[in-house]
Amino acid sequence: MYRPESVNRWCVVAVLLVALVAFPASAAKDPFKGFDKWVEEIMAEWNVPGLGVAVVHDGEVLMARGYGYRNYEEKIPADGDTLFAIGSNTKSFTAALLGVLVDEGKLEWDEPVREYMPDFRLHDSVATEEMTARDLVCHRSGLPRHDLVWLQTGFSRTELYELLRHLEPTASFRSIFQYQNLMFMTAGILAERVAGDSWEDQVRRELLDPLGMVRSNFSVDTMQQDDNFSYAYGEEDDVIERIPFRNIDAIGPAGSINSSANEMAKYVQFHLDYGKVGDEQILSEANARAMQSPQMVLTGPLAARVSEDKEIGPASYGLGLMVSTYRGRPYVRHGGGIDGFVSAMEWLPEDRIGVVVLSNTSASGTVPSLIVRNVFDRLLGMEPIDWAERARKREKEAEEQAEKAKEEEASGRKEGTAPSHALEDYVGRYENPAYGVAEFTLEDGALTADAIGFTVPLEHYHYDIFAVPEGLDGVLEGFGGFKMTFYYNKQGDIDRVTLPLQPGLDDIEFLRLGDESMNDPAFLEKLTGDYTVAGTVVTVALQEDRLTMTVPGQPTYTLEPDRGTTFKLEGLDGFSVEFHLDEGADHAGALTSHQPNGSFRAERK
Question: What is the pLDDT of residue 517?
Fold first, then answer.
């Protein structure tokens, strides 16, 4: 459509005025000049198949687009509407939901959780009684990550909640920051208890729908039903490879949301506006600001890592968000990562700049943060920092340190040793009340472990220690060098194994279970009856599918299946009962009680 020259001139002037208001003078001409080319170069260097990138400033979406491919094999491009898993960026949604419940008077930030959930219980009794909603969403429970209890075990959300009481802490309650996914899961359960419907339904109703995030969802299974989603990728020998989706619905409130650059732009704007969507206050300004305010100072390796650049100030954790400074400016951020996906969500509140980067590879977590900082520097009009060069240097140093650690580990191996027992003696099922059952089998002269949802081959390391070999494919590669230690009791029987499942704790102990056939009621019935020794009658009975043994003048003992026809006495170390059951016999003819001071045979009465 034709316009007079004078009108066009005024339009140009108006656009320039808007640009001068929106950006610092040095960035006014074209803050994104060369940006696309730089992003593509960074993606190629770090082997990133696809990205979703969104930038907001002063209430406007400056960019919401894709780079690369959502389907690398078929070269289907990613765009601003492509769905990616956002991982732990889900956490702020859970914290915001708790804020909504506080606004509605259904919840108090600083009221003990047990006021709402009397069945809440942790290993630490103080944390059990004093834990609040605020504590749940700022990582100060005293618990380390314990991620292997949920990653692939198949436990449901309810089962994970019930086993919290068995997870050991590594610090006292509220003493230090320790990142903890299960507490955010618990925060989601808390929301369910006080509101009466699921965490998913509440987040949809209270946050996603009001924000217009209509395609965002809560499961990778749901995401794959959409017409525009990204596959998950990793890397093998510098080659991009598609990897399976990991369903983490069980700990959904900690990390299961999937979204797009376009929809995450709306979410970042919601936080830049302190809980408002248009003219509607979805979350009170007070609670929105509390989310972006320090609640717990970061300490330890994570603190060093997130503030290792002098331009990044010391970090604290708010409510589902991390709080710091970027080149002297207030700075709020969070990251997310799950198999095949890494995301970054960051903003500068005073400058009203927000950036989201969604990546479809977990081979490198570097690229999203590089892009965020590059955008910040461009829009702030500041002298650009070569963040990529710093990242290259750090990655090289990390690789060298990892190689050195492997060499040091190898030097500690004792050559020429042998296991204390025949390999078949290690075969069996072992159980930990939190981590479940670990089963060891023997095939072709080598042990295999099936534990925490993973099946791995084992090779003898030294003495009674067996290790996962290096160089396994896919997700199992991370278990290379993982060592399992077996122990035997006073009778010389292998009765437990320990696995290094959580740094900062002693290896997690799994106690040997009896043969599964020993739980068969028909088998147990053959062992019941009265047995006599030196005139004393010993009664063995079956109560609720478990054997008990009663000796006059003593409490009734519960018998735990061990192996064959031998049972341990529950709660008594070194005591066991062996039944003598001939093949084809209807009843055991005798039993032998093995004790630290000797063995005593009793004949069936």
Answer: 83
